[in-house]
Amino acid sequence: MKKIQRYTVHPNIPKELTSILDIAYNLWWTWNPEAIDLFRWIDNELWETTNHNPIKMLGAVSPQRFEELENDESFRRHLKKVNESLKTYLEHKTWFDTNYRKDFKGTIAYFSFEYGLHECLSLYSGGLGVLSGDHLKSASELGIPLVAVGLIYRFGYFKQYLNIDGWQQETYVENDFENLPMTLLRDEEGMPRLIAVEYPGRVVYAQIWKIQVGRVPLYLLDADIEPNSPEDREITHKLYGGDTHTRIQQEILLGVGGMKALDMLGIEPEVCHLNEGHSAFLVFERTRMLMQRHGLSFEEARDMVSASCIFTTHTPVPAGIDLFSPGMIEEYFSDFARRLGISMDYLISLGRQNPQDKNEAFSMPILAFNFSDRSNGVSKLHGKVSRDMWRSLWPDLPDKLIPLRHVTNGIHTRTWLSDEMSYLYDRYLGPQVLDDPVNFSIWEKVDNIPDAELWRSKERLRERLVCFARRKVQEQLRQRGSAKREITYAEEILDPRALTIGFARRFATYKRATLLFKDPDRLAKILNDRDRPVQIIFSGKSHPKDNSGKEFIRQIIHLANQEEFRRRIVFIEDYNMDIARYLVQGVDVWLNTPRRPLEASGTSGMKVPPNGGINVSVMDGWWVEGYDGTNGWAIGGEVYADLKYQDDIEALALYEILEREVIPTFYNRGVDGLPREWIKLMKNSIRTICPVFNTNRMVCEYFTDVYNHAYIQYSDLQKKKMKAVHDLEEWKRKIEDRWDNVNIEQVITDPLKDLRVGMKIEVSALIDLAGLKPEDVRVAMFHGSIEATGDIIEGERIWMKPVERNSDSVYTFKGELPCKNSGQHGFAVCIYPDTHKLSRRFEKSLIKWWTGH
User: Fold this and answer.
1) Whole-prediction pTM
2) Is the pLDDT confidence value at 793 over 80?
3) Which of 261, 446, 558, 724 is the most exposed place for a label (fewest CB within 10 A)?
4) Are the beta carbons of 304 and 714 closer than 8 angstroms?
5) Which fold has domain 95-406?
6) Which CATH number is 742-849's, of 1.10.150, 2.60.120, 3.40.50, 2.60.40?
């Protein structure tokens, strides 16, 4: 085989203009309109044909064009302004500097399987990746000391095109890493820095690429290098490609390799955030590192890891989680178990709901739960769904005590905001609406925007979307070999003045993309009303193995090809972040129709209000929290056992909302031609949604409620050369030795008769602590309304305090129950071990309830 000598060619940029590269290699430009304008100025056509990739574009610019730019004083001034803006941004005092810099000296490591940062970087498939990208952008805005870890994929996620029948086809395009806005990390001799990860019978090597996202570095591992075998090089070829062996190999590289990469770079994170269970294997490597460095036992090191790991689950159904057979875990981790000093059975048990069931599969989320101090869902409803889904991990705990809460997702507003709306906000709300990332009250000033200006901006955005959609459809038809007449006809599809509905997301069946087509005749009348026309733009991909999702796309295409729908329904192929921006900025209505409660959060609908759009959504995910009756429309909210009946009912509700509410409100114009009621809806949507459903608020919440708490716990355990860790293990052994003999002997109350709202009930509990001390435990009353089954509904917790020692081991604890409202109520008393040193508080569900005996 002939040898090919490789070499790299770099853009030839004049010395006076080299600061362009500083801007291009920091993804700060992706949310800075002036920086994007700078790239467009260089060569707008190249900017478009290179998929908005500044590095590839700069490499294709001719020397003559650079010479023109060098002599263009206006361009040089603009370059200087953007470059100074970047420097100011990086040096500017941040929210973190003001509030936490003095006390928080650590680093947070954020792990995710995919990152949606920009369309030129094919590192994402959908919502999970876009959320991860927005998380990094907001961490940068806030100045939080966070580093991110992921994998880089040679072919990324697939590109979609539809055949003449409307059936989705997949193709993979190789990423040219040298022409992307990222850098390969090299050692002092200029060689790529490599990490080594052990796999069964071999070692797999990976090099490290770095993407700078504002202030936040993102490190991506690449196994497609020559030291590896052809099979191992495929580990990082495709996102969500291959079989279960590919998946476990990717997840080992992400988790174990990710920790090794940080170690090589001299980064020892105090806090690790696992975004979904894909990276959960990092807990094994982090535990091994702590054992080796500090001479700890496995359990001691596990306590440190668990004290400072955070796990975010995005999955609302068991079918969506990563499971591996016990045999596969043994194949890949038998050596690892020996290094950890534990048996293979014990290691596998850490990923099981029932550790004793030798046949149960190994679950990545369960591993993450078992090594995390705090876990959360991604919306209020998803938090409840997750607690119900994983309740068997904590069988004796009431809902209030299950250590799985929620942090509702958000969006990085600047990334998704149109220039038109940005101008309005800057003018009428003040520049701090975007420059002050935590001043959410500024959005109250939205009424300062004149109705006419807001409406004109929205009309321009809708018109731009229509022009974009026409252009994309024409491109699709050309690629499909359609007749010239068809391509010409596409110039007339859609109406820039018509009510425009957008539906774009992953085409999973539960998202019900075809719900609107339950009654095609009724839909045709809605869309083709001569005086009040409506149009719908669809986009989205189905997973390559999801034929049901592909069938939904095919049905839409077939319907759109019918004469009555041809000008009113459009499907834009190969959904990506660029298409998403046009859609969320241009549509009047964003339609969301998941089957409740299967939408964990969803973020696409959050991107619409900042751009003046309105949500029409099933009451699922984030919309349960976002909808207030004045800022959009809600569908359903119930869960039916008969799914077909649920679809029928909610399709009917959707038609009713469109016909009776949405369309009349949009087309009801005043004498000045303005839809005043619609504009009021737009402003209510902006006022209520923008300040809450953004990643600046989300990341602030993560930091104040989760990251900082984890950092304090980890720091406390590090003190006195790990003495706190040893003390914690000694305390746990004491608890385990004596817990069987702990007993709630008696509960005494005031008479439970003639109670009135506002009164209080004094409760005493006599508890035999079996030699433990009151500070070793927590005693609580759970009280609330009683449902028909006799259980307490949404119980509240009240602590009981020790007031008297009755004998050597029996103590009296007391508390008061408030009578807040009338009706049938009840309470129960429980005790569980607790110490400020304990991280995995409910790991063994060591909780006892008073049984009345």
Assistant:
1) 0.94
2) no
3) 558
4) yes
5) Rossmann fold (3.40.50)
6) 2.60.40
